[in-house]
Amino acid sequence: MQLSVQDRIETMQLLTDGQDHLLEQSLAPGSRALRDRAVSRWLAFCHVLAVDPIIRSIDDSLSLRWFVYFLGSAWVNIRKSSHDDNRGLSHKYIAGLLSSVRQWHLDKGYTNPLDFDKITSKVLIGLRRITGDTYKPPLPVSQVALQFVITTLRKRKTTRDTVIAATMIVMFAFLLRISEVAQTATKRGTKAAFLRHGDVVFSDNKGEVAVGIELRDTKSDPFNLIARSLPHIDKGDVYDVMHRIMCDNVAIAQARNYSDQQLAEMPFLNFNGVPLEREDVSQTLRAILSHPDAPDGLPDPSRYSSHSLRKGGATELLRLQIDIPTIKWLGRWKSMAWLLYTAVSEDSVNRVARVMANAIKF
Question: Which residue blocks in the chain are alpha helix, DSSP H?
Fold first, then answer.
């Protein structure tokens, strides 16, 4: 009786010994050639960047992510020479090259870099959306553009707009992800790792007033709470914004006879006790920046998203000449991947131009 393919798989008799040998003979040369090309590309890439090709830590893995970006968007693919855009290899092909680089590390006795680097695989998945010049990542929102959005929302004087404005301010100031302030839908269901009322603390240490937050479920460490704080500087600053939210939350809790535990678990940023959604922030941001009265020189408003606030905060810190270790600390980045989030501002370019123009005297 002839066995079906499924039956052969289940009984581990899909191939006879002779067939197995022929398959190995056919696959091995091609596999070795692919691996050699992958490792050669990786070594050449590291040579040009003057970096060590052996990845030993999460900081070293940044070069691996740049390698993936380069192959996916900049590499000239001669097989596509007849097309208008022949840049970039497919994400599936790059996945094979990445696997070869991983195996090369193991063969040399080093740790698999993908064991501790959880970001590169996500970058690789993101390449599915990259098709040459059509890839347009979200832009960082500037301080000027954000101020226009906040002012517009305040003029509307509705509870919803007030909460969204406060959310944008908190995200920009603390470099927060949208999942850390709002309820986010994922393939596995709703992700509820947002900031809760009990995670926000107002302190007064010998006249030094500050507001602190504790963040959970971060990419760097999903098990521990990470604390960040900002001082009270002037009227209407981040401290005052968050203090008003706290008072509103307490009022809601009292009206509903919440226990202390229920108040602590209440989403800090909410509409009448209900957590925000990702679209509440992103859609509002794009809609206001699409208005004819928006600041001049803004790019396509569709290029903004909720992540533009985290990117914008990091870019603003660079513009203010804050040192890199401090930006990494505030944004909770373990590697230099945060540099991919920032953008060169016009103000920074003008400052560099003035410095360089005056650098040498004739």
Answer: 5-10, 17-49, 62-73, 91-107, 113-116, 120-126, 143-156, 159-174, 238-255, 260-265, 278-289, 307-319, 324-331, 346-357
Torsion of CA 241, 244, 245, 250, to 10 degrees: 160
> How far is residue 346 from each of residues 235, 341, 352, measured CA to CA in Å?
29, 16, 10
Length of the chain: 362
Please give the helix or strand (H or E) that residue 99 lies within, else none: helix 91-107
H-run or E-run covering 209: strand 208-215
**Angle at Cα 313 formed by Cα 58 and Cα 177, nearest 5°?**
60
pLDDT in tens, the chain (362 residues): 454 544 544 444 455 555 555 555 555 555 667 777 788 888 888 888 888 888 888 778 888 888 887 777 667 666 655 555 566 777 777 888 888 888 888 888 888 887 777 777 777 766 665 554 555 678 888 888 999 999 999 998 899 999 999 999 999 999 998 888 888 765 555 566 788 999 999 988 878 888 989 887 555 555 667 888 888 888 888 999 999 999 999 999 999 999 999 999 999 999 988 888 888 999 999 999 998 888 887 888 888 989 899 989 988 888 888 888 888 888 887 766 666 666 666 666 676 666 666 666 55
Domain 22-134 class, CATH top level: mainly alpha
Report helix, strand or coil for 166. helix
134, two tokens? 């059509």
> Looking at the domain 143-353, which fold is it?
hpI Integrase; Chain A (1.10.443)
State the Cα–Cα distance between residues 345 and 28, nearest whole angstrom.
51
Check: CB of residue 124 under 8 Å from CB of residue 275.
no
Q: Where are the domains of the chain?
A: 22-134, 143-353
